[in-house]
Write a structure and sequence with these properties.
Layout lengths: L3 H12 L3 H17 L6 H7 L5 H12 L3 H7 L8
Length: 83
């Protein structure tokens, strides 16, 4: 049986990223798809992809993509509704 620490080290060695970082990137990738749908606002999208705090979502999004979710949406040609 493998310990949590061993599992994390193995994951990091194989993918060169921590499980937490992988999860954040996965959630943000899902968010980019949802941002193309103008019927959902940023707060709804952050909740759907698993962020409990919209501010944390926006900060993580900016860190990875260099722009806010709202600016990403505008660049993708969608106007945000309801936020």
């Amino acid at each position: 049986m493998m310990s949590i620490a061993q599992c994390n080290r193995c994951f990091n060695k194989m993918l060169n990223i921590t499980p937490y970082e992988y999860l954040i990137q996965y959630r943000l990738q899902k968010a980019t798809n949802l941002l193309k749908d103008a019927t959902l606002n940023v707060t709804e999208i952050s909740e759907i992809v698993g962020f409990n705090n919209v501010t944390h979502f926006i900060q993580a999004f900016k860190k990875v993509y260099g722009i806010s979710p709202k600016k990403y949406r505008i660049m993708e040609g969608q106007d945000e509704k309801g936020s």
